[in-house]
Design goal:
0% strand; mainly alpha; 400 residues
């Protein structure tokens, strides 16, 4: 039986993943320009390619790490991935050129696939009634990480643009030692499953989502949530600069508010709402609030309207852990395989959605556009969430 300290280790690991990703956001453009000897305009292309590399590696690795954790246990997979993240961060401190930076970001993305083993660990030690709340804690850790990471990285970057990577490596090293001490295996040998490459590769994992109608519907809903998020990732800052002439401080303030509110929603509200409404209705409420939040972003005529939009969208974070918990309730899969498939779907959306939403934004705001509409990506995100709600409402899925 896992020690009580094991759950905090899992949550700390997830938080450090998010913090580590967020820490490099303020310094990555400068580092790319320095080691690539390129201008700011050229750096934007390389940054997009680097993000796609990170997301692509995550997409490929998540189901494989989940499958390996079903075969060999959660503990070795999690500890190895933490060691890989720390090593990649430490090597980045000394990275001399862009090509090696690509390789290191691919390693960081691949080791971030440990989210599948981490969430499988929580599923192992949770009852069906506890899963939504504990998956909500996972979302809370991500929210907290995305609040603290950019702020911490920006502060460290004023000293040196490579310092955030060194601190990331040190934090990973401390977490690795902590894990060796407190983390006990959650998956006993008798519950382990053979490693199946057909299901553990990314495309096999995606096929596994289509095994039955309930899995198909939940997979579609999950993709809707993550695809809609691409509007915020790729267009939020540019749209606010264009519509409201916001600076980085104003954009950062709203993003920090959204991250903090999302962390509170998933950390404190998911369990309570789930007990009152059940998983299915909790997911529907969350998806509906997400659609309303994106619609508020889209139609905002004054800058102050972005703040309530951020809060509404953060409350919509009820949906993710509820859908994730319903997916875990489907039979016939190991928790590692299931969480790997979900992480892979999210990684795929992280590649496709920003490119799609960015293209829509460019088309809707170009000179000579029939209707100049900077909120177009957010409107599409609202419609996609609404479509996800219809799929969930009409389908036969675990009620929880």
């Amino acid at each position: 039986m896992p020690r009580p300290a094991a759950t905090p280790f899992v949550l700390v690991t997830i938080a450090l993943d998010a913090i580590g990703f967020g820490m490099i956001i303020p310094v990555e453009p400068q580092l790319v320009m320095r080691i690539g000897h390129v201008s700011g305009a050229a750096a934007s292309f390389w940054l997009g390619a680097i993000l796609a590399t990170f997301s692509g590696a995550l997409f490929l690795s998540a189901p494989m790490l989940g499958g390996l954790s079903d075969r060999f246990g959660r503990r070795p997979v999690m500890l190895l991935s933490v060691a890989m993240q720390g090593s990649a961060a430490l090597a980045t401190v000394f990275v001399p050129n862009l090509w090696l930076f690509f390789v290191l970001r691919a390693i960081a993305g691949a080791s971030s696939g440990n989210i599948s083993a981490a969430t499988a660990y929580l599923a192992d030690i949770s009852t069906p009634e506890q899963r939504a709340q504990r998956f909500g804690l996972v979302g809370a850790m991500f929210g907290l990480g995305f609040v603290l990471g950019p702020a911490f990285g920006g502060l460290l970057g004023t000293v040196s643009i490579r310092l955030p990577f060194l601190i990331r490596a040190i934090l990973a090293g401390c977490n690795l030692v902590y894990g060796f001490i407190v983390l006990r295996e959650s998956l006993p040998p008798e519950r382990r499953r053979p490693f199946n490459w057909r299901q553990a590769n990314a495309f096999g994992a995606l096929r596994g989502v289509t095994l039955d109608r309930a899995a198909q519907r939940l997979g579609i809903v999950w993709c809707c949530l993550w695809f809609a998020l691409g509007a915020q990732q790729s267009c939020f800052i540019l749209a606010n600069q264009m519509r409201f002439h916001w600076n980085s401080w104003q954009n950062g303030l709203v993003l920090a508010l959204a991250g903090a509110a999302s962390a509170l929603t998933q950390g404190l509200l998911v369990g309570r709402v789930r007990r009152r409404l059940g998983l299915r209705r909790t997911a529907l409420v969350g998806i509906g609030l997400s659609a309303l939040g994106y619609l508020t972003y889209s139609l905002a005529l004054r800058s102050w309207m972005m703040f309530p939009g951020a809060v509404i969208l953060a409350l919509g974070a009820l949906a993710n852990p509820a859908v994730q918990s319903m997916f875990s309730g489907l039979g016939g899969r190991g928790h590692g395989e299931t969480q790997g498939a979900l992480s892979s779907l999210a990684g795929l959306m992280a590649i496709v959605a920003p490119l799609t939403m960015g293209g829509i934004f460019s088309f809707a705001t170009r000179p000579g556009a029939p209707l100049h509409f900077a909120g177009a990506p957010f409107l599409l995100a609202a419609l996609i969430c609404a479509g996800g709600a219809v799929v969930l409402a009409r389908g036969a899925t675990p009620a929880g």
